[in-house]
Amino acid sequence: MRRRGMTRRSLVAGAAGLVAAMTTGGDAVASPVRQGGGEARLARGELRGVWIATVANLDWPSKKGLTAAAQQAELIAHLDRAVELRLNAVVLQVRPTADALWPSPYEPWADCLTGVQGQDPGWDPLATAVREAHDRGLELHAWFNPYRVANHTDPARLAASHPARRNPDWVLPYGGKLYYNPGLPEVRRFVQDAMLDAVRRYEIDAVHWDDYFYPYPVAGEAFKDDAAYERYGGGFPDKAAWRRDNVDRLVREMGERIRETRQGVRFGISPFAVWRNKATDPLGSDTRAGVETYDDLHADTRKWVKEGWIDYIAPQVYFKEQRPDQAVSYSSLVSWWAKTVRGTGVDLYIGEALYKVNSEDWPASELTDHLDIAARYPEATGHVFFSAKVVQQDPKGVMTAIAERWAR
Predict the structure, then answer these.
(1) Structural contact between residues 294 and 306, judged by C-beta atoms closer than 8 angstroms
(2) Domains of the chain
(3) What whole-number distance in Å separates Cα of residue 221 and Cα of residue 213?
C-alpha cells in the first residue's frame, strides 16, 4: 500500500484539478488549475523523472548572471523537453549549498543565479518551477542538500548573512569543502527548518535528498567532530554508531515534520546504491563496492526503508550490467533494492547514469537494457535520469529510444 503519495494521487484522480498555492516574494497567489497529465501516468505506478542540478550551474541556469527572463526561458525549456520525452517528474535542486532558490527567511539566495550569493535574482525560481511544471502535468520534487555549505573552505566567501558565518561553530572543513556538523542538534533543527520553509509555502510534490550525508571519505583526512562526539556521544559504542544515529534522527524527524507541515508531500532519498556488501554483512548486496553508505557515509539507507521513514528510495544505480571484472552490476543492485522495499510500502525508483552514455564504454543499449532488467521486478516502479543537460543532449539517441518505448 502506498501511503501519502497514493492518498494525494487518489485525491487528484477524483477531482477536476488542484489549485496550487504559490508564493512570490512571500505573498501567496493562486496557480492555474493542474491538468493532471503527469498524474494520470503516476496513478499507474510509474515515475519517469529527471534531475535538474543547480550546484555549480551543472544543468541550470547554464551560467551565472543571466537575466531573469533568460533563466526562466532555460528552465521552461527543460520542462518542455521532459514532456516531449514522456517524463512525468522533475527533481529540481533548490538548496545546493545551504542557500536557496526561493526567498528564504533562513538562508541567502543561491549564487548559481546571479553569481553573488545573497543577491535577489528578481524572480522566484521555485514558485515558477512549481507552476510551470504543474501546468505541464509534471510533478515537481524539490531537491535539497542537508549539510553541504560550500564547495570551498573559506567562510569569508559566503554571503555576510549566511548562517554558517553567523554560527562558525556549526561548520567543519573537509575534503576542500565546508559542511554543517551533523552531530549538533541545533544544526539538525536548523536545516530542517530551512527546508520546511519551502514545504510550507509551495505546492511541491516531494522533498528529495541526494547521497550526501556525512561526506564521502577522503584518504588521510579526518572529519573533526570530536568535540560534538564528546558532548553528545555518550551511550554509543563508537563514533560510527553515533554518526549513524545523527543521520537517522535527521531522516526520521524530517519525515514527521513534512507530514505535520503539509499532507500529501512525499519524502524521497536518492543514495549511493550500495548499502553494504555481502562480504561485510550477510544482509548486503552481492557486490564488492569500495564505498558502503552504512559504513562510509553513516547513512543506514536500508533502515530508513524498513522503518517506513521515507516514501520512496531512488538509489543511484550508476553501474553497467555484469562483466567478469566488475565489482558491481546493475542487476545485482536492482534485485537487492527490490527485495529491500518489498512489503514496506516504500516506492523504488532507479537512478540512471544517463551521463555515462557520453563515454565510449556505455552504448545506448546499456540504458534500454536497464529498463528491461528493472521491469522484471514489480517493486521497481520508475526511473530518474541524471541529468537535465544530458537529457537535452540525448546522447546516442537513447532518451528518444526510451520515450518511443514508453509510447508503445
Answers:
(1) no
(2) 4-147+179-407 (3.20.20.80)
(3) 17
